[in-house]
Predict the 3D structure of the following.
Amino acid sequence: MTAFVTRFAPSPTGLLHLGHAFSALTASAAARKAGGRFLLRIENIDQGRCRPEFEAAILEDLAWLGLDWETPVRRQSDHFPDYDAALSRLIEKDVVYRCFKTRKEVLDEIARAPHIGRDGPEGPLYIGAPLAALEERNLLAEGAPFAWRLSMAKARDALGPLFADLSFVEQDIDGAATARVRATPEIFGDAVIARKDSGTSYHLASVHDDALAGVTHVIRGEDLRAAAHLHALLQALLGLPAPAYRHHPLIADETGKRLAKRDKAATLHALRESGASAGDVRRRLGFTD
Ligand code: GLU
């Protein structure tokens, strides 16, 4: 049997709810069915929003649900130098540029350039350019904060004809159907690849860590379906292997609205407190064994 490695990669910014439970159970069941491995990764690069108590609650809730995973668990905040090194490779390839603009300045600039005023998966689409060398040197000397953006134009130049051929494998949730999807990372515009505050981004850290762990199947909610387009580009630029993707439907509340961290009643913690068993939760989510 070919190796099968998947993972659940929550961010400890709140308590896990039924949607997270569904995601973790889906990934774990897929690994079991394939005789593969199930990993857990704590995506806590956003140190302003992530909390150790939520991280502890994640481990407790997943164990209560009956899941087990390999140890040690990778905690992204312990590995910032890895993400710096990945960013350095992109800098060497000259496909990223420093962006000193505030969010407001970016939005104002977009408003003045309505021809690119579409929305991408992460909000209004921004296409910028590096500053002139002298201006940049002055800002750096002042210690002005900056993010790194991936230049779609430069990525296209760097990859040449490969850019138009970028693709990724998308499977249905039980892996029965497989399609090759053409990747169109330009839907992101010049995505922020290293944030001002953390020096990396979800995209860079996640792509790096999936490759490092040998993840063969990325299983996650369909809210992240578009991200695969950008991830395919990062994999090509960084020379990383490309996993297959399975994006599962999101769990909704009784009104059909997608669950969010603020829906306290749907947290595993609240369900447990109200007397539900792990078996009840698993059955409610369609997992019968
Ligand atoms: N950390 C992301 C989240 O909690 C998941 C990322 C992924 O599975 O690729 O939404």
